[in-house]
Amino acid sequence: MRETTILLPGYGPASFHNLTVLTFGTPGARPHIYVQGGLHADEGPGMLAARMLADLLATVEAEGRVTGCVTVVPAANPIGLSQFVHGDQTGRFDLYDGRNFNRDYPDLGDEIAPRIAGRLGRDPETNVALIREALRAALDDRMAAGPTDHLRLELLRLAMPADVVLDLHCDGEAEVHLYTQPASLDRMRALAALTGCRALLLAEISGGNPFDEAVVWPWVELARRFPDHPIPPACASATLELRGRSDVSRRLGAADATAILRALVHLGAVSGTVELPPPACEPTPLAGSEALVAPVRGLLSYAVDLGARVAEGDVIAEITDVVTGEVTPVRTRTSGVFYARPATRIAEIGKRLGKIAGAEPFRDGLLLSP
Ligand SMILES: [Zn+2]
């Protein structure tokens, strides 16, 4: 294991943050897998899983079993980790400007198209190398507007060269679920099965430019733009949601780290054999995932458990008006798995009350939570 530290500027004068990067195997070896936790810095399960994955990788590396290269960043957002409001850690949004730490990643496909036009050939591997070099150059040319943009660029520099990128997150309360794109799906099915994923949500573009799509989109876009040259989808990515914010335990962390390590074996980055369990779900469109919204204010009580299969018209939650005692049922319009809900039980009008993975697409525009 090699440990390197990237120094990031903080917002205040003379303030800095450290981004710790752990690398296993031989740099440049393929496949190269990149795993990060805690891009939303108030989400512990992914950070613990990434940390415990690094511990497992140190063992298998000592056994000579890391045949590719694996980069692990257990705490991808030291800026968010330093944010506290009145004693509570807060890490989804940058307190400086309110931006979500997992949005606004640059779409580099358009930017590098002129750099590679006329230089592409007939050999897919040569084209991949050319595009990776152009992506690297484009990142190096960008000027960060501030510390968080600086972090965004550093994370992209680490992840862009990888064949597979895993971004570990969690929801308020949730079953394991995973967001990916059609171009990445085949390389994520094993991970989904191994982690017991209950909703595998597909979108080519979910909106807002999240990290996972920023590393994949250039390949899709350039393949479309240069149809006469073979450009394979050289990077696959997923956002893996490891349950809810309070699901932080070494037992769960060990199970998740083991599942990810097995996925690395399946991908060929670590030697060994792995038997895949049957998948716990089939892929469904992110555009078919209903986000229930509170129509009234009050105290929130769930009528069904997380992970339940629900049908259109089922009451998912009831909201009790504290003053009048009136109870308002909240019904789903979707049939599917109830896979995520917030951790709090006081609802304001418009509060997102939960997500149900339906098979039929019905939404467009921004498909992710704010
Ligand atoms: Zn997150």
Give structural notes.
With 370 residues, the chain is α+β, with helices and mostly antiparallel strands. The protein has two domains: 2-281, Zn peptidases (Aminopeptidase, 3-Layer(aba) Sandwich), CATH 3.40.630; 285-358, OB fold (Dihydrolipoamide Acetyltransferase, E2P) (Beta Barrel). The protein contains eight helices and 20 strands. The chain has helices spanning 44-62, 78-81, 108-116, 124-141, 147-159, 185-194, 211-225, 250-267, and strands spanning 2-9, 16-25, 32-37, 69-73, 84-85, 88-89, 164-171, 173-174, 177-180, 199-202, 236-244, 283-285, 289-293, 298-302, 309-310, 315-320, 327-331, 336-341, 346-347, 352-358. Strands 1-2-4-3-7-11-9-10-12 form a nine-stranded mixed beta sheet, with helices on both faces. Strands 8, 13, 15, 18 and 20 form a five-stranded antiparallel beta sheet that branches. Helix 3 (108-116) crosses helix 4, helix 3 (108-116) runs parallel beside helix 7 and helix 6 (185-194) packs antiparallel against helix 8 (250-267). The chain is globular, with a radius of gyration of 21 Å. The two termini are 36 Å apart. The model has no long low-confidence stretch (mean pLDDT 97).
What structural class do you assign from the helix and strand content?
alpha+beta
Terminus-to-terminus distance: 36 Å
Count of folded domains: 2
CATH structural class of the largest domain:
Alpha Beta
- Quickly give the CATH architecture of the largest domain: 3-Layer(aba) Sandwich
Strand order of the largest sheet: 1-2-4-3-7-11-9-10-12
Overall pLDDT level:
97
Low-pLDDT segments, ≥5 res? none
Q: How many alpha or pi helices?
A: 8
Looking at the structure, the CATH topology of the largest domain is: Aminopeptidase
- In CATH, the homologous superfamily of the largest domain goes by the name Zn peptidases
Could you tell me which ligands this complex binds, including any ions or cofactors? Answer: zinc ion
Coarse morphology: globular
